[in-house]
């Protein structure tokens, strides 16, 4: 995801190679929302995402996700969480 974000933000593909595709219409590139039904999705949203797609989730599961979103997320490389 980090590489995809870099490329979609309009940065060069590699040294000596220009950017792929047209320039992004929004700074940083397009939004990347995530959806899913497991706790790992919350970690993906925290690490890489711009939002969560939870339209198909029952309300009690959405309540559980909102609790997880409010917990501090360890930074990259942390032994006890996403990185």
Structure characterization notes:
It is a single chain. The protein is of the alpha+beta class. Helices cover 35% and strands 14% of the residues. The strands form two sheets. It has a two-stranded antiparallel ribbon with strand order 1-2.
How large is the radius of gyration? 16 Å
Proportion of residues in extended strands: 5-15%
Number of helices: 3
H/E series: HEEEHEH
Low-confidence spans: 77-83
Overall helicity: 25-40%
* N→C terminal distance: 12 Å
Class by alpha and beta content: alpha+beta
- Name the overall outline: elongated
How is the topology of this model organized?
Layout: H1 2-8, E1 12-14, E2 17-19, E3 33-35, H2 39-48, E4 51-53, H3 59-70
Parallel strand pairs: 3-4
Antiparallel strand pairs: 1-2
Give a quick rundown of the structure:
By secondary structure, this protein is an alpha+beta fold. The protein contains three helices and four strands. The chain has a two-stranded antiparallel ribbon with strand order 1-2. It has a two-stranded parallel sheet with strand order 3-4.
Name the descriptors.
83 residues, disordered C terminus, two-stranded antiparallel ribbon, 14% strand, two-stranded parallel ribbon
């Amino acid at each position: 995801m980090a590489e995809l974000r870099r490329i979609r933000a309009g940065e060069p593909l590699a040294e000596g190679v220009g950017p792929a595709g047209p320039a992004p219409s929004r700074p940083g590139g397009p939004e990347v929302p995530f959806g899913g039904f497991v706790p790992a999705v919350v970690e993906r949203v925290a690490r890489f995402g711009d939002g969560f797609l939870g339209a198909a989730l029952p309300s009690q599961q959405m309540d559980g996700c909102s609790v997880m979103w409010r917990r501090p997320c360890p930074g990259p490389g942390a032994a006890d969480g996403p990185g």
